[in-house]
Amino acid sequence: MSEMDRNQPDAEVLAMLRAEILSLRAELAQRDAEILALLRKSDETVITQNTRQKPTGNSRGWLKTRMARMRHRLMLRHQANALSKSRYFDANWYAARYPECESPDKAVTHYLLRGAFAGHDPGPDFQTNAYYSANPDVAEAGWPALAHYVLHGQAEGRRLGPTAGG
Fold first, then answer.
1. How far is residue 150 from each of residues 2, 41, 58, 110, 133, measured CA to CA in Å?
2. Mind listing the pLDDT tens digit for each residue in 51-74?
3. Is 0.70 surpassed by the pTM of this model?
């Protein structure tokens, strides 16, 4: 049996595992979308229930603002958790390269809130501006580049940067 014949089953197993991983990532992205939809529906339900009562002053505006802040904090926590597990995010590298984030402990939050939008790279193996260039809809939607890639883009087969032809 030649070396190539022995490697063939390994290649087939790897291909099957890769397909399963991509399928699971797509399912995870779908679950993330469902969670966001449920959060929005929950927000609408709370607002509707609270507005059935006679509003006093600016209580509706206050409630909408509080719900939006809560949704933002939940999304930030979800994104931070995903980035902290990503091989593309290196907190020590990021903190050394961008001292305005103050420390590696604050690197993920800094990248999500400011760094991505300033074009900062989250680690040596991911280029934020290249991802935005290859996926302009991500930048237009206001997503931090690596958060989008980890939570959705990878499962969708998004490119990390522009192709050689432009």
1. 39, 25, 39, 17, 17
2. 555 555 566 677 778 787 888 888
3. no
